Predict the 3D structure of the following.
Amino acid sequence: MPVPKVKICCISNKDEARTVIQFGASALGLVARMPSGPGVISDELIKEIATIVPPPIATFLLTSETEADAIIAHQKKVGTNTIQLVDEVEIKSYEKIKSSLPGIKIVQVIHVTGEEAIHKAIEVAEHVDAILLDSGNPNLKIKELGGTGRVHNWEISRKICESISIPIFLAGGLNPENITEAVKTVQPFGVDICSGVRKDGKLNEELLSRFFTAINNLN
């Protein structure tokens, strides 16, 4: 089984960015304004962090914008090399984003609330560079667009991985204790973790070490 790429989300400052890179993270998640959830930082700080991250490590802007022009403007403001769309956008928006931001990767979040997520993922897959499966619920009055700390149905996520060919990241309630089972069940390209490597909201090196040890022992 290939060792999955690791994205550490909710990076809050430059020191956290440097720490997770040293541990072996392939991508960093930088959370902009959201209707709910942890890890939100200013666009100015996102830009500062993105500037110090060396290639080939990916910097993900988590944006809740849903209109193409607003998404494009947001990326240009912060300068990340990847956009993570945490809410649904119109299919036609993807092409506009790609043409306006050549070289910038687009990752669409699919919130796995049920079997309908399979159809959504298949529909979106031909328009984006990767999909991230999370445990939010965009249908609530105050949208949950990530950072819930909840595990979703991994069997549905596995079906999605079997149905599409682009890279898939698995998120939602992952931690050092369940990451081995999660990866063996879903077999994703990558995994995404936030609260599972934090204590009292702060990045915890012991949890990071245990998480990466579990990941590296998968092969």
The helical segments are 14-23, 43-52, 68-78, 91-100, 116-125, 154-163, 179-186, 205-216. The chain has eight helices and ten strands. The chain has one domain: 5-193+204-216. The mean pLDDT is 93.
